[in-house]
Amino acid sequence: MRLTAVEEGHLRNGMPGTIGIAAVFPGEPFDLAQVRSRVRDRWGGLDRMSLVLGRPGGPAALSGHRWRTARPFDPGVHVSATDQDLRSLLTDGVSDLLPPERPLWRLLVTRQGIVLLAHHALLDGRSLETLFRLLMDDAVSHGQASPPGRTPRRSYDSGRASEPPRCTGSCGASGSPASPCPRCPTCGPRWPWSSSTRR
């Protein structure tokens, strides 16, 4: 499958092309095996996450790059743990090239949360938000989810670490941005793959 003009442009602009998003969760660090299992369940059926960049078959100016599908989907090669802090991880991540021999994304599990890095030709900022949302407790399966890039705008800021949304008071509890309430489903730290509130 040939890249679109926009995708091709992200490869030819002379930059690494890596973008990133982070989610910060208080509490104990996530278990790497659980994260990989959730990624397999929630992202394994998304064709976009298995696309590998193929080199042009002829002169690049004429033929362009093509996507090819790498199967089976293997979260083990994409999801890894790191002791690096979020700020330096994002700074280094968007400055480095992703390995071209596999789909151009990585999910890194840190002590503070999770970081998704991807090439801009493969995913855009809205797609990163969609993928994070698919990992959450109340996410629908990939068959019911909106395609990446067609989802409502959220408060997460792509490219830098940010706190999860806090209570706006709509749940009837006394939460505030500075003090998350215990009752609202969008408040309080939660496991992305468990229905219970993290302590």
From TrEMBL:
Residues 141-199 are annotated as: Disordered. Residues 167-178 have a biased composition (Low complexity). Pfam families: WS_DGAT_cat. Residues 60-155 form the O-acyltransferase WSD1-like N-terminal domain. It comes from the Bacteria. This is Wax ester/triacylglycerol synthase domain-containing protein. It comes from Streptomyces machairae.
